[in-house]
Design goal:
Strand content: 15-25%
Bound molecules: beta-D-ribofuranose, calcium ion
Structural class: alpha/beta
CATH superfamily: Ribonucleoside hydrolase-like
CATH class: Alpha Beta
Helix content: 25-40%
GO molecular function: hydrolase activity, hydrolyzing N-glycosyl compounds
CATH topology: Inosine-uridine Nucleoside N-ribohydrolase, Chain A
Organism: Rhodanobacter denitrificans
Number of domains: 1
Largest sheet: 8 strands, mixed
CATH architecture: Alpha-Beta Complex
Pfam family, one: IU_nuc_hydro
Number of helices: 13
Shape: globular
Low-confidence stretches: none
Radius of gyration: 18 Å
Strand order of the largest sheet: 3-2-1-4-5-6-10-7
Order of helices and strands: EHEHEHHEHEHHEHHHHHEEEEH
Distance between the termini: 20 Å
InterPro entries: Inosine/uridine_hydrolase_dom, IUN_hydrolase, Ribo_hydro-like
Protein name: Inosine-uridine nucleoside N-ribohydrolase
Number of strands: 10
């Protein structure tokens, strides 16, 4: 079977790193386009280049927007991922080059060069993707699929604006543009992520049995693990890894609902919330395939392979 062909927009970030290691283990990556989000763009670009080095790959890395499209973000996620987004380990300057092309233009060019071939996987705020869509609304017609990690479809969320999830809450206008533009996309939300956390002890066994990728990931995840333990978030929560599993193999999804999903752009408490029209009252087109459950055993197997765990 031929490998999945991916184009990944990301803001690495600890769980982005696991997702990208999964992509290297199971797919070909046409490019990494980088957003600001978990931490500032300088760090997310550098972290992406560190991952390219770790993979021993030559994947082009494209820097994107350093701010959201319209309003400055209220918060980043350095308090979870570390000030540098990779657990403040102090890695050396990476060797992998930064391409001399803005992320939004690279998304357009690569999809023109390979129409219908690439699955676009969005693991961060949707700023680059929205900008690309405003430049060229034909983009959705040139990608095989879009898989988005974002939203909180039952309103729990993980940000200061209670019902909002981080990626959508960081740049709500961008998410609005993307959700309106794509006729269909897979949405892996924060609450699905919580249902698919890995058991801590089991994850530790994988880290001990894996290769240098496991050693790397074990280091960078320390800060996020400590944060989650203090805030009653159980197990190893890997939002972007779950979205990557769906991108790599859509047959892993065991329960989904297709609904209209809109983004709240105002609201004193709710800016950035994803509003799901669960009972189809508004008559809007149902574009989002909301992933509710995946086969956890297959998801775990994908993660183990990405960490170099034998067998
Ligand atoms: C999302 O926000 C980021 O902190 C993670 O990398 C993930 O993409 C989860 O809400
Ligand atoms: Ca991310």
């Amino acid at each position: 079977m031929s490998k999945p062909q991916l184009l990944i927009d990301t803001d690495p970030g600890v769980d982005d790193a696991l997702a990208i290691l999964m992509a290297y283990a199971h797919a070909d990556i046409a490019g990494l386009s980088i957003a600001a989000g978990n931490v500032g763009l300088g760090h997310t670009v550098r972290n992406a280049r560190t991952l390219v080095d770790l993979a021993g790959a030559a994947t082009p890395v494209f820097a994107g927007c350093s701010t959201p499209l319209v309003r400055a973000a209220d918060e980043d996620a350095a308090f979870v991922h570390g000030q540098d987004g990779f657990g403040d380990i102090g890695f050396a300057e990476p060797a992998a080059a930064l391409a001399d092309e803005p992320a939004a233009l690279a998304l357009l060019r690569l999809t023109h060069e390979r129409p219908g071939e690439l699955t676009l996987v969005a693991l961060g705020p949707l700023t680059n993707l929205a900008l690309a869509l405003r430049l060229d609304p034909g983009l959705p017609g040139r990608v095989a699929r879009l898989v988005v990690m974002g939203g909180a479809v039952t309103g729990h969320g993980n940000t200061g604006k209670v019902p909002a999830e981080f990626n959508v809450g960081f740049d709500p206008e961008a998410a609005h543009v993307v959700f309106e533009a794509f006729p269909a996309f897979d949405l892996v939300d924060w609450e699905a992520t919580l249902r698919h956390a890995f058991d801590d002890a089991e994850f530790d066994r994988w880290l001990a049995a894996g290769d240098r990728r496991a050693a790397f990931f074990g280091k960078i995840m320390g800060a996020a693990r400590r944060y989650n333990a203090k805030h009653d978030r159980r197990g190893v929560i890997a939002a972007d890894a779950l979205a990557m599993a769906v991108a790599l193999d859509p047959s892993i999804v065991t329960r989904r609902e297709t609904r209209a999903v809109a983004v709240e752009l105002d609201g004193r408490l709710t800016r950035g919330a994803t509003v799901v029209d669960w009972s189809a009252r508004l008559g809007w087109p149902a574009r989002a395939n909301i992933v509710l459950e995946v086969d956890q055993i297959r998801f775990a197997a994908m993660v183990r392979r990405a960490l170099g765990v034998p067998g």
